[in-house]
């Protein structure tokens, strides 16, 4: 951006206009500063390419989560959002994940984050999250798992036999581990 070195406010006037020239091939933020009487004021000018910024990425904070929890998504543009911001449309191809319909990247910024709540599921669900802006789209895969699954190595056993049970969590156990309570309806048949 090229600015004049100075400008004169005419006598009796309180303002004067000036012209800034942007580079035809440039893009990005530029801070314009005016100084008068040892006081400075600045304004941000975002110069976008002639095609404007495009959607360059959609990322998720995790690729796999337990149903009923949330994951954070981030959308990124190839440049700064123009005046009014950039409204990015969001969608999911399955009900297990429920992103907001839109997320707005504020003026002058190139990214924004948002929360994607998930619902409890009884079996693992593969979900594709899609972000769309100005004719470009980005996708990210998310696996929504049951909070946990429980299986037995056999559905029947003879008296005195051992059967193995397996509990599989929908997401990694925390540092202190995850307590799972077990019970039986007939302690004479199984312990």
Characterize the largest beta sheet: strand count, sense, and whether it forms a barrel. Answer: 5 strands, mixed
Q: If you compute it from the alpha carbons, what radius of gyration comes out, rounded to the nearest whole angstrom?
A: 29 Å
Instruction: Count every helix, treating DSSP H or I runs of 4 or more residues as helices.
Output: 0
Low-confidence stretches: none
Strand-pairing-aware structural class: mainly beta
Strand content: 35-45%
Give the integer mean of the pLDDT values: 87
The number of strands is 12
Largest sheet, order of strands side by side?
A: 4-10-9-6-7
Order of helices and strands: EEEEEEEEEEEE
Spatial separation of the terminal alpha carbons: 78 Å
Bin the helical content. under 10%
Shape, please? rod-shaped
Quick structural overview:
This protein has 191 residues and is mostly beta strands. It is 0% helix and 43% strand.
Tell me what you see in this structure:
- The chain is mostly beta strands.
- 0% of the residues lie in helices and 43% in strands.
- It contains no helices and 12 strands.
- It has strands at 28-36, 39-47, 55-60, 64-66, 70-77, 86-92, 102-105, 111-117, 125-133, 136-145, 148-152, 165-169.
- The strands form 4 sheets. Strands 4-10-9-6-7 form a 5-stranded mixed β-sheet, with no helix packed on it.
- Strand 9 (125-133) and strand 10 form a beta hairpin.
- The model has no long low-confidence stretch (mean pLDDT 87).
